[in-house]
């Protein structure tokens, strides 16, 4: 369980020793026989001390099993003697109560008859006005109201009778009556922070996403009383999705620890050491329970409204003293688990492994899609959930109601960001043609920043890919050019990319040049908006219009302004040869890639229905830029990787300065088993990001100082790190060279620090990767080969398996070529699985070849191949040379 509160907490009748109800999910097991308690089965729990947190936990038993336990236990041990010994008794139906009493001695039935409890109303009859005042209710029974049957019934008849009883009781209810007061208590409980924590714990325990949705749906329909939800649905949804409507708190984990070390009067270093486990909320809970200065409340009584108000005020504070004082006001009302959950809300992560789709689908089948379009959570919940439109009779939503409500789609809302449509990786021409049967628009994939432009009259808003406002210095000047570019566009929403463009050459500048300080380095450059889609124009949403119509609207209404607002470069493609030609052209120019869109496709917010083509996606990833780097350090991970090294500092050796330089930090590529093994295999020294403890052999910028450094870098393993491209990053010391989107593709057990990529070699690789590529994607004859490349991106666990041996009967077809000094041509099939990147100098002994398609250096893993020129034909035919033979006269 992820939280200490996951175990059932003590109910309001804290003196009860037992609990009875029907199994809800079928996940709990019997304490005695260890078998699962089937959903709907009657069960009894012994309430025992909870070793994981405050309060008690329930040890569930089958009815027969607990009777066996009673027979064997000591006479002095508590057992069920009267019905008052059991919590949840009043929530059972009369039939369930009868079944329980039939298993116990007659004294149990007599104790039930003598109890002072309110009369149970018969179905479809008026409430009994002479009912006695009920005693204090148990944990779940205080959810009951005057307008419900005693406990949820499963029969259709009881549901109908219950509804008629609800309507009659509502007519007779008067303000100030015991019934209305009880209803107010239920509303209060449904809005309690305690119930919020319980639901989060329940969601976290469920592994399947459909199960998580069902748990939320049941609570939103029946509430804590298991009959009808009376809480604030908008507020519940808002807090269950803290990342969807983000507040900014200016509080990182270490700053939170600093604040609470003052509040608790505890040692900050001790708290920081606990923080290394990766969960700041758990750290705060532990030290809250240990604090003598500020002790936790035995039982939290916060409401959701109080917590929401607290968080709203906190988001407006920037000074540490103000933040400390603010926490000081709420902490006395919090149990340690309350405070833990508040920290989770501040960190925008409840640790329940659920996102907007799983929560919103519990409200309405169309809620998630509506939220993707409008991003207005409150509007979506009010219109499609149980807010302003919900049926106050408490009827369950039927299929008929659900389908009719689909007509209430949430429209695109101007000046509110729409979740952008995305693209999935395209690994071949064949895949592209299959995904786009109507033909496609092939657009240049610009290496800039995605921006969604909203214009309403003279007002402008700009949103990033993550729906955050774009920094003003990047977009402020567009307000002068957009009205000129769209003279007839009063209101519009554009999907676009912004780049810094060199005015002299009209070429885009590298990724990252849009930074405030970087931009100043390019005096003769301008920030340019490359527009590729329009999803709203003059009062009309274009989301459901095919892209060919949206493109026509752009062409008809947009006037390009050079270097400021232009249309993205695009070609309409219907044949695979045309797509291959454009791909070749793009990669030769050193551009990032292409985005492919079916001509008849509509704009679906958040969906990955476009395709993106990048060189590191092709040929099983063999065209990715990569280098063999040494593990120099590591950081602690977060979440389920907390307390273990899961992010690694990779670097190379500088033979001139005799120091090790940093190249990149990588956290992707290892499976869990390998990651666990690395904890003991890597010989690391803990320095806790302390600059004074960085060893002399490491040349490292302050922002890259890790939690651990290698004891001896020459004894560390070598990993092949691949990425989208080599980039310039000033935070790294390998001449500023780094790798974009790095991942571990192989553990190079065959290499050590001497044969790994060093700094001069890395500079050569960087230079080669930026040169214009001279290659073609079209072999002389197309072949269908779906076998994976050895260097394809995959989770690593061990060294790669031996390469497949080529069959002598089958020769790879001729393809791209490179002349040698003896006018001999070396061919290779670009889809062959026998090629992988070698990453170092030419070595004929290991049959390493320079290949102009897969620039810069690639290793052939099969038998050595030598071409022959039959009859002077230019089409080379490959022949085989035995393993171990040297390929002569190969030059780079």
TrEMBL record:
Q: List keywords of the entry alphabetically.
A: ATP-binding, Cell cycle, Cell division, DNA damage, DNA recombination, DNA repair, DNA replication, Ligase, Magnesium, Metal-binding, Nucleotide-binding, Nucleus, Zinc, Zinc-finger
User: GO MF terms on file?
Assistant: ATP binding; DNA binding; DNA ligase (ATP) activity; zinc ion binding
Q: Which residue ranges have biased composition labelled Basic residues? A: 127-138
PROSITE patterns given in the database record:
DNA_LIGASE_A1, DNA_LIGASE_A2, DNA_LIGASE_A3, ZF_PARP_2
Query: What cofactor(s) does the depicted protein rely on?
Result: Mg(2+)
Basic and acidic residues bias locations: 106-123, 158-188
GO BP terms: cell division; DNA biosynthetic process; DNA recombination; double-strand break repair; lagging strand elongation
- Protein name (Swiss-Prot/TrEMBL): DNA ligase
User: Organism, per UniProt?
Assistant: Cacopsylla melanoneura
